[in-house]
Amino acid sequence: MRKLLLAAAMLGCYAAQAQQLTPTERKLVAAVRQRMPQTEKLLEQVVNVNSGTLNVQGVREVGTVFQKEFDALGFKTEWVAMPASMQRAGHLVAEHKGKKGKRLFLIGHLDTVFELDMPFTKFTRLNDSTATGQGVNDMKGGDVVILAALQALHANGLLREASITAYFTGDEERGGHGPEARADFVARAKQAQVALAFETAIDRHTVATARRGSSNWQLKTFGTAAHSSTIFKPTVGYGAIYEAARILNSFRETLGKEQYLTFNPGLILGGSEVNYDEAKAHGEVTGKTNIIAPTAAVAGDLRFLTEAQKEAARTRMRAIVAQNLAGTKAEITFADGLPGMPPTPGNQRLAALADQASRDLGFGPVVAGDPGARGAGDVSIVAQYLDCLDGLGAPGKGAHAPGETINTKEFPKLVERAALMIYRLTR
């Protein structure tokens, strides 16, 4: 009974706070609700197009759908092409010029992790509160949150003086290599004051003021090819696969308990002949049980909160790699990906804005979530230049896995919150 009374009191408090919305803000919220059927149709339309990063045609098709929506709002749209060697679709940019309020940089991405050779799942309603489909929350749902919020603002004439750039990258899940992959992204972000990123909302009470960065590593080990009956003998040694296993286990034992640090070996090959195509994330191997493997290869990622944490981890990993088993040798290389996004006072102020908007809407409080609960994201690339907030997208579970879902009952609330935040920032 006490819990019920407390819950009722909290609901009453939130309802009272919701009265803090101005008449204009109440019209804005009403526009979001009125347009929700069209919003959900837009989500279904883009989810039903495969846009795995390497499916250039599919990524462009999804981007073209969004481009038409931005054009209808009076945004100037364009595609930023990537070098042909990257085999990426490029990025969709939509700009609206204005002189009032903060200059906003809204971040989404068009691609998903689901490539063409993976089973395809269309948008499917599972019940009255859940739908599934490829990228439904990561992050086509987040892209639609952006557009639905802007459409509600436009319907009320609230975009006329706003300065907003929406940037939908085409390769967030598997970024193209080299600084040119995000050069335009960074340049446009530097012209803004606030970045709002719409990756999956863990729940509507949590946002991200910090995100971990991501980089890649490749391990290669070498041994002596010989008959399996001679393994462990001083003249032969342990072979490449045992050396790879030693290194991976030492990584786990030595670095596996550090806060915000993770390292995942996502692919491993070992045998008599190994061929690994990094661009396609595909490998082929041949070998026999009675032959000691002369070579092995492992590809993995490394996630961290700060650059200092990343560099310290790399130093320790190199030291482990150098302690070879008898008859083996090994080498490890690292490639930078997305930097970390440490928490800052400016980011926390944006979290406070989200909190106030949520309370005013009667949805309850919002807090900064655990950085360890998230991976890397495009927002981290620009975090050193402006205040940033992420996790403002669609609510759901199972991102990057078959059966990815969106909570269709919570979804409209996050669109309302996004619209209200954008409105208040651009006043």
TrEMBL record:
Signal peptide region: 1-18
Domain Peptidase M20 dimerisation stretches: 209-326
Transmembrane segments: none
Gene3D superfamilies to which the protein is assigned, alphabetical: 3.30.70.360, Zn peptidases
InterPro entries in the cross-refs: Bact_exopeptidase_dim_dom, Peptidase_M20, Peptidase_M20_dimer, Peptidase_M20A
Key words of the record: Hydrolase, Metal-binding, Signal
The protein's name: M20/M25/M40 family metallo-hydrolase
Species annotation: Hymenobacter bucti
